[in-house]
Amino acid sequence: MNVEQAARQLEALGSPARLRIYRALVRAGHAGLPVRQLQERVGIPAASTLSHHLHRLILTGLVSQERQATTLICRAVYPAMNALVGFLADECCADETCSGTGEAA
């Protein structure tokens, strides 16, 4: 993952409403949630507002949508989530000098 992609994803998650939406989808698992159920869970009264937030998360690759008959199912894209978390953690403490005890010198 590159810095620009990580920045776009973090910016999308920087909205409290989008973070609530994303967390609800992560919590829902691979089955995802129908849009109406997602709307109820996160407490966004206007469908157009939810649609706007979902669109932003879809553009960054964090969320996908699939139509099943008349129902639109939203899902967290777990590989994207794992890549973002990995990007943030991969170089954790890389510049610290170790004393051999597992603690910084």
Automatic annotation (TrEMBL):
InterPro entries, per database record: ArsR-like_HTH (IPR011991), HTH_ArsR_DNA-bd_dom (IPR001845), Metal_resp_trans_reg (IPR051011), WH-like_DNA-bd_sf (IPR036388), WH_DNA-bd_sf (IPR036390)
Location of the HTH arsR-type domain: 8-90
Gene Ontology terms for molecular function: DNA binding; DNA-binding transcription factor activity
Keyword terms, alphabetized: DNA-binding, Transcription, Transcription regulation
UniProt signal peptide: none
Origin: domain of life: Bacteria
Record's protein name: HTH arsR-type domain-containing protein
Provenance organism: Methylobacterium dankookense
Lineage of the organism: Bacteria, Pseudomonadati, Pseudomonadota, Alphaproteobacteria, Hyphomicrobiales
